[in-house]
Hints:
The structure holds 2 protein chains of 2 kinds.
Chain A: E1 2-6, E2 16-23, E3 26-34, H1 41-45, H2 50-57, H3 65-80, H4 86-116, H5 122-128, H6 130-151, E4 160-161, E5 164-165, H7 171-196, E6 209-213, E7 226-231, E8 234-239, H8 243-247, E9 250-251, E10 258-259, E11 261-262, E12 265-268, H9 271-277, H10 284-292, H11 305-330, E13 345-353, E14 356-364, E15 370-376, H12 378-395, H13 402-415
Helix pairs in contact in A: 2-3, 3-4, 4-5, 4-6, 4-11, 5-6, 6-7, 7-11, 9-11, 12-13
Chain B: E1 5-10, H1 16-22, H2 28-34, E2 36-39, E3 53-59, H3 65-77, E4 78-84, H4 86-90, H5 106-114, E5 137-139, H6 146-157, H7 169-175, H8 201-204, H9 221-230, H10 235-243
Parallel strand pairs in B: 1-2, 1-3, 3-4, 4-5
Amino acid sequence: MSTIVIEHLARVEGHGGITVELQGDTVGDVRFDVFEGARLLEPLLKGKRYDEVAPIVSRICSICSAAHTLTSLKATEDAFGIRVSPQTDLLRELLLRGESIESHALHIFLLAVPDYLNYPSAIALAADKPAAVLLGLRLKKLGNLMQETIGGRAVHPVNPVVGGFGKTPSLDQLIELRSGLMQASADSDAVIDLMAALPAADFCRSETYYAALRSPNVDSYYSGDEVMVVSAGNRAIVPAADYRSLTNEKAVAHSHAKHSTFRGNPFMVGSLARLTVNPRRLTGKLAVAMKRLKLTLPADNPMDNNKAQALELINDVERSLEIIEQLLREGVKDERAMPAKPRAGTGTAIVEAPRGLLIHCYTYDEEGRIVSADVITPTALNAASMEQHFRRAVEQCPERDEAVIARRLGMIARAYDPCISCSVHLVRKR
Amino acid sequence: MSKPTVGIFGLTGCAGDQLVILNCEDQLLDLVSLIDIRDFLMASSENNQDCQLDLALVEGAVLSNRDAETLRAIRKRSKLLVALGTCAVWGGVAAMNRGADRDADRDALLEEVYGDIGRGYDSTPAQALHEVVPVDFNITGCPIEKEHFLAAVASLLNGDLPLYPEYPVCTECRMRENNCLLIERGLLCCGPITVGGCDARCPDLRVPCVGCRGPAGDANAGSLVAVMEEMGFSRPQLAARLRTFAPGGVA
């Protein structure tokens, strides 16, 4: 028996590795190992008052901190029966789009593209292809500016609170964002040029299930409370309150990750899943871009997640422009947050984080203190699917060349864009 | 002069301080021309894990024996070791209940989150870096301020150490002419005892300070607790709030 081990995955957020055991020609155990220290944040939340919760859970992950914050607020508002204003909904969506733009630009340009072009880092890539890196940095900076403007800070937003925002951004700030977004919109061809020129990555095809928040309107990030699971030809709907039927996390024999399956099938969440579940915006400019990237949905290649992120990046910019136009048209009111009247009960919220479905569920006592908290992150949801694709990559490399396999496994892991700090619910290797 | 060698590391945390470094979009390419980043796993797959470093920037808290070993190895190879962010400086959110009764049985907590197999994980109560190895200086914040990181690098390149505020958030909040959330609105704001440097970001947005930067050197905690008790906040409530990011001890 031989073993292929990637001790410590590079260019991902957090600490994880991959282990593949080979018995002759047979692929044995395939593990996505997580050795992030256990912070045990869920038990630490017990007894915390409702207004303390979001600033703590935000710290689960920096790259997804806006998504964690907003999912947390949405779950608390669900528990207390608070309905936020339409303006708050729009601004929250804008904040999430900003986070998505930052995260996708970071991932595509700084973490993933170096893979395709055989560079160890974006810093090395910048020496040869400065334009590509500068484009990525420009988009990333825009995403951060959006988060600073709406969220008050690029990492761990402080402005969103239960019931709304501390302070509403001013018209001038929104107009500044609009000009940045218009510049980014003009850059979208350059993004697709870069992605379309990358060498094909085709080494782990298999039929894949996808799960994403189902959109009640255009394409959902923040609003919505149902998840749709799609596979070739099949669709199923899971309401937020039944999220456990989707995540039925179970510890598996090789004891490294609680695996989420839907009716026994691993599923993928994230950009590719969102486009598969909500393809309605893939028209016009996006349809042309999709054709240039040779992306068809549903895809059977998880590496296509990088293409989907590029399409989402463009869509995020366009949708953000629409939101700002609407806010400017309707006028921005200096609203105060809706008052919170705590009551005993449970609230559940699902939001699309940059890496996919994020679920928070809290039970409060009558004074508004946490009795129990459950946080399900996209990286935890993706673990089973990621391992399935690791396995396919080894199977589809009959010569079993260790260096080739190791490189491909790293690329698959990065295509899933794992956020291992988010793995509050990943069971780690002993 | 040869470029100083630098390593950027994350122990257990949210990676937010490394992200702040990557968020220096306008300075990043200049920065890498001035310093020689040899080891930065979050950004590069080609790292020298053994070379001597002039400067190690370490974020996150120590939450496992593995973290502690990693940190000791970094200390051994580094001239200067900088604790980056509140987790590294103070222990951060994972340390909030440290020393409290509930944390006594860590195995029970592990089991609560991970089930049976949680028992026996390599998991230790959260520690700040200085509790494990000597730390040369601290850049606090959750996350750190971009400007503080850049100022630190600039100072070090010039053979100097950076200076950061010792005064509390209130000082900056007054300078921004905000209404006081604590006195005028009766909200539990940690500004009076939290170290400044954030330009009172939260109170300026009418959001009370949660203390994410850790305690100010010249804060008068006793007096704040007295004021807050007078306003009707209970001691346990205050203690929990003030311990959320920095559970005590002196960094």
